[in-house]
Design the sequence.
């Protein structure tokens, strides 16, 4: 092993000379050969050169290119180096950005030397046998007090189960990452972002999160309120399109949830019929509907920097969302902000009012092109009888330029109510 380690070259990229010096000495002590870079441009040159280092420690903020930018460009150029982001940025969304940019791992300063060495050593030498993943099953007890009873939902990342509090007897929903994916740093960071984002929000139109943690086997879980009803996607599949008055009610309630999220500095980034839950309610005398609309799944949420309500927008050059409901700026790497969610809410309203998607299902490249370059269809040309005022509302809701959309969620919902009940 020692002979192998002495042949391994490690890039140390940090603009702080003291940190570079310390990391270089550690790398030498571990038997590696350090390759030093003082800024992002030098780091990229090293990773893209004729004799690139096999491993790298990248700081986030450097002159020239940032650490994530170095990762993105290096990966695009074919770099296969094992890259560890080493930074003081500990927010889950920063972890996600670093991993999505192409980093293999992420370590937060101040760091434990043993952990850093283990992360850097990952993949060196013979592969180690992995323990069998923990099994998720009915009867399993989460957090010592929630017993899983029945699986009620499933997605690409995990499953949702109905569970019962052992002492109080009330039902909750438990969301768990798939055991086979539980070790993924990216998915664990996404899960933590969802927990943080949803815990910030107090609204009857956002599904509530009560707790977050890990099972003894390391599976992340969320404890959420248990909702009876169905998603908007399920309702549309069963009934087809909805009346414009019902669509307006749903948009109004979702707008209230989004207003709370945006005020707290949270952008959902994945508003779509499958992430809208229509909760059954007994007394419909107040809102005139037998259900209450709630936003689900903040796993792709973005927690924006800065104090609300002066939200900053952030662009990161990668696609996050669902094709057909993702705004143009999500596809072209433009700034992401509250109006990104408004485009998605408009696309959801289009689907509910017409029974068809605003962006037709097709190859990813075609859907991306239609979203970025073409205006969405005119609703009244799909469903006769929809008023021209709704066409105009939809044109503004899903404008390609965020500046041309509604100012905020509340004004968007208010404008739709005016279409349904003109003065």
Sequence:
């Amino acid at each position: 092993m020692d002979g192998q380690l002495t042949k391994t070259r490690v890039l140390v990229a940090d603009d702080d000379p003291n940190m570079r010096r310390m990391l270089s000495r550690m790398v030498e002590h571990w038997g590696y050969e350090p390759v030093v870079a003082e800024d992002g441009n030098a780091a990229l040159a090293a990773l893209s050169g004729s004799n690139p280092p096999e491993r790298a420690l990248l700081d986030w903020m450097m002159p020239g290119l940032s650490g994530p930018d170095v990762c993105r460009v290096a990966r695009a150029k074919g770099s296969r180096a094992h890259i560890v982001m080493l930074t003081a940025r500990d927010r889950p969304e920063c972890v996600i950005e670093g991993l999505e940019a192409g980093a293999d791992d992420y370590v937060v300063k101040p760091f434990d030397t043993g952990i850093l060495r283990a992360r850097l050593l990952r993949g060196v030498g013979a592969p180690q046998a992995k323990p069998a993943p923990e099994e998720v099953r009915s009867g399993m007890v989460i957090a010592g007090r929630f017993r899983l009873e029945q699986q009620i939902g499933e997605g690409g990342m995990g499953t949702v189960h109905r569970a019962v509090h052992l002492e109080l007897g009330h039902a909750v929903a438990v969301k768990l990452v798939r055991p086979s994916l539980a070790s993924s740093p990216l998915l664990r960071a996404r899960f933590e972002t969802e927990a943080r984002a949803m815990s910030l929000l107090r609204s009857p139109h956002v599904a509530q999160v009560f707790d977050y943690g890990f099972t003894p086997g390391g599976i992340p879980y969320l404890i959420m309120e248990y909702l009876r009803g169905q998603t908007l996607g399920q309702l549309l599949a069963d009934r087809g399109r909805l009346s414009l008055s019902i669509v307006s009610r749903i948009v109004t309630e979702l707008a209230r949830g989004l207003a709370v999220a945006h005020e707290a500095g949270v952008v959902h980034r994945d508003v779509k019929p499958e992430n809208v839950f229509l909760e059954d309610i007994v007394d419909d005398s107040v809102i005139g509907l037998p259900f209450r609309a709630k936003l689900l799944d903040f796993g792709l949420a973005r927690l924006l920097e800065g104090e609300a309500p002066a939200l900053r927008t952030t662009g990161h050059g990668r696609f996050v969302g669902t094709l057909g409901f993702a705004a143009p700026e999500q596809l072209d790497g433009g700034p992401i902000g509250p109006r990104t969610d408004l485009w998605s809410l408009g696309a959801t309203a289009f689907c509910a009012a017409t029974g068809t998607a605003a962006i037709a299902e097709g190859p990813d490249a075609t859907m991306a092109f239609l979203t970025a370059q073409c205006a969405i269809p005119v609703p009244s040309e799909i469903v006769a009888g929809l008023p021209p005022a709704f066409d105009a509302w939809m044109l503004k809701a899903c404008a390609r330029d965020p500046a041309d959309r509604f100012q905020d969620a509340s004004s968007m919902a208010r404008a739709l109510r005016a279409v349904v009940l003109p003065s």
